[in-house]
Amino acid sequence: SAVISQKPSRDICQRGTSLTIQCQVDSQVTMMFWYRQQPGQSLTLIATANQGSEATYESGFVIDKFPISRPNLTFSTLTVSNMSPEDSSIYLCSVEFFGQAIGGTQYFGPGTRLTVL
Amino acid sequence: SQKIEQNSEALNIQEGKTATLTCNYTNYSPAYLQWYRQDPGRGPVFLLLIRENEKEKRKERLKVTFDTTLKQSLFHITASQPADSATYLCASEYGQNFVFGPGTRLSVLP
C-alpha cells in the first residue's frame, strides 16, 4: 500500500469559478483514477489519468469540464471548471500499483469535499 | 448494460451477531469481486478480493463468497462490533474499468 494525500481536503467555491485538486502518492503507481461521489451515492469513475498523455474519460465526463494532468508516476491533478452547485460532491483519487495480479486493488485518497454556492 | 446491486441500503444488527451483505451482478461475468469499507468523510478502504474460481475467502472476522451461478457475492462479518458500522461497497472490473455498487450502510447496535 501507500500513503495517498489530496489537497485541499475541502473547499467552498463560488459558481463559475474553477478548483484544482491535487493527488500525491508516496510511491510510483501504475494507474491513477479520479472518482466523484455525490451525497448518499456510490462512486462514479470520472477518468483514468494517463502519464504523459490525455486522460481517458468515462461517458458523461469531458476534458473541458474536468481537465486532468499526470506529469509523473506519483502525482495527478483534477480541475473542476466553471463550477455549478451540481458539482458539489466528494472527489477521490485512487491508485493501482505496479505488479498487481488480476484484480488490481485500488487504494483511495481521503477525498476532497467540494461545495459550490 | 452491466449492473451491480447491493440488497439493502441500510442494515441494522445487534452486536455479536453475524452481518450478511449481498452483492448481485447482472448482464456480465466479472472475473473477480472486491469489497470495500467506507467511513463517513473518508475514501473507501479495500477489504477482500475473491476470484470467480474461488468459492470462499476469509480474513479474520470477514468472509466473502462468490456464487457465479447465482451471480452473487455474500459478505459476512462474524461477531460484529459497533466499530464495524460503516458503508460496505462491492466492486468489480467491467472492461477496463471498475464499477461500484451503491453500498450498504451497516449499523451494529450495542
Residues in β-strands, percent of chain B: over 45%
pLDDT under 50 segments of chain B (min length 5)?
none
Main sheet specs of chain A: 7 strands, mixed
DSSP E strands of chain A, number: 11
Greatest interface = A-B, 20 and 22 residues
Silhouette of chain A: globular
Overall pLDDT confidence of chain B: 90
- Helical content of chain A (DSSP H or I, runs of 4+): under 10%
User: What oligomeric state do the depicted chains represent?
Assistant: heterodimer
Structural class of chain B: mainly beta
Uncertain ranges of chain A: none
Helix-strand pattern of chain B: EEEEEEEEEEE
How far is it from the N-terminal to the C-terminal residue of chain A, by CA? 36 Å
Count of discrete alpha- or pi-helical segments spanning 4 or more residues of chain B: 0
Structural class of chain A: mainly beta
Walk me through what this model shows.
The complex is a heterodimer of chains A (117) and B (110). With 117 residues, chain A is mainly β. Chain A is built from no helices and 11 strands. In chain A, strands 2, 4, 5, 6, 9, 10 and 11 form a 7-stranded mixed beta sheet that branches. Chain A has a 4-stranded antiparallel beta sheet with strand order 1-3-8-7, with no helix packed on it. Chain A starts with a strand and ends with a strand. By secondary structure, chain B is mainly β. In chain B, 0% of the residues lie in helices and 60% in strands. Chain B has no helices and 11 strands. In chain B, the strands form 2 sheets. In chain B, strands 2, 4, 5, 9, 10 and 11 form a 6-stranded mixed beta sheet that branches. Chain B has a 5-stranded antiparallel beta sheet with strand order 1-3-8-7-6, with no helix packed on it. In chain B, a hairpin with a 4-residue loop joins strand 7 and strand 8 (72-77). Chain B is globular and about 40 Å long. The relative contact order of chain B is 0.33. The interface between A and B is medium-sized, with 20 and 22 residues.
